[in-house]
Amino acid sequence: QGEVRLKCLTALQGLYYNKELNSKLELFTSRFKDRIVSMTLDKEYDVAVQAIKLLTLVLQSSEEVLTAEDCENVYHLVYSAHRPVAVAAGEFLYKKLFSRRDAEDDGILKRRGRQSPNANLVKTLVFFFLESELHEHAAYLVDSMWDCATDLLKDWECMNSLLLEEPLNGEE
């Protein structure tokens, strides 16, 4: 029953919000992770949204729990026609790929003449889009990340400088 799945996912989110319980949930997470990942494709959109939100919390508590394949199952949902699913997947994608920024990377960007620390993030987003091979659905990707990555998506100066600069050796 969809209602039961939904209630279970929302109850689990409450547990994963509690940082003290995260270490105690490792066995549960490893046991039921595959089922939670499969629920991201649930026929009821509310269940899919809550499953993605739960996986985002799992990601924040322990990044090594989710495999690359698990993450890829969520990544493609940023192109979902159902906006709440796409937004939840966009937040997951942002937290996984874009939310960590190294001070070392920022130094490299300035040495290369890129003014914004968002330059690598913009390039990562473009590569993600190109690798997904859904070139006619760029608007879906931008819309799914608009709420969580507004600063990145509105960094026009960074995007302009990336477009106007000559690529470095080995760079496309």
Automatic annotation (TrEMBL):
Q: Which family does it belong to?
A: Belongs to the SCC3 family.
Q: Taking every annotated instance into account, which residue ranges of this chain make up the domain SCD?
A: 1-39
Q: What GO biological process terms does the UniProt entry carry, in alphabetical order?
A: sister chromatid cohesion
What name goes with this protein? STAG2 protein
Q: Name one GO cellular component term.
A: nucleus
Alphabetized GO MF terms: chromatin binding
What transmembrane ranges does the database entry give? none
Domain of life of the native organism: Eukaryota
Give the species this sequence originates from: Pomatostomus ruficeps (Chestnut-crowned babbler)
Q: Which Pfam families match?
A: HEAT_SCC3-SA (PF24571), SCD (PF21581)
Q: Which InterPro entries match?
A: Cohesin_Scc3/SA, HEAT_SCC3-SA, SCD
